[in-house]
Specification:
alpha+beta; 4 strands; 1 helix
Length: 148
């Protein structure tokens, strides 16, 4: 007696194709969000580093009456930076250091397509006017942009 119903189980090619398309659509949305999140965490390295320097500069200023011109003069042990580089506290004359200082960190290496952006801090904290990370609010941990 021949059977009239098939009991074979499995997925058809169309069902598998639909699943692959759905996964592709989800990945198209998830991957850029993931890359932005990773870059934002790397940018946080610069903010943490510069916040530490700002706090140390304020202590130095309270004791000495001027801001330090060198990182070696500050009372902190600074960790090495993995994703940013700097030449130290921006050069200025000793008279200027009585009231202000500035330091710029520049992103080095691959940055998920954002290029070599900068993060600048001064005596007032994050300097959104001269920091180029403000052009990329999706990776800026401070959530500030040039229009703010």
């Amino acid at each position: 007696m021949p059977r009239t119903s098939r009991t074979e189980r499995g997925f058809t090619l169309v069902e598998l194709a639909v699943v692959v398309v759905i996964i592709g659509i989800l990945a198209a949305f998830a991957v850029p969000k993931f890359l932005n999140s990773v870059e934002r965490s790397k940018a946080a390295e610069a903010y943490n580093y510069l916040s530490t320097i700002q706090t140390a500069q304020e202590r130095f200023h309270a004791r000495q009456g001027a801001y330090a011109s060198s990182l070696d003069d500050l009372d902190v042990d600074l960790p090495g930076m993995e994703y940013f580089e700097s030449s130290g506290i921006d050069e200025s004359d000793p008279q200027t250091l009585q009231t202000e200082w500035s330091m710029t960190l520049t992103r080095k290496g691959a940055s998920a397509g954002f290029g070599s952006y900068t993060v600048v801090f001064n005596q007032d904290g994050f300097d959104k006017q001269t920091s180029t990370i403000t052009e990329y609010p999706e990776i800026n941990p401070m959530k500030t942009s040039t229009g703010d």
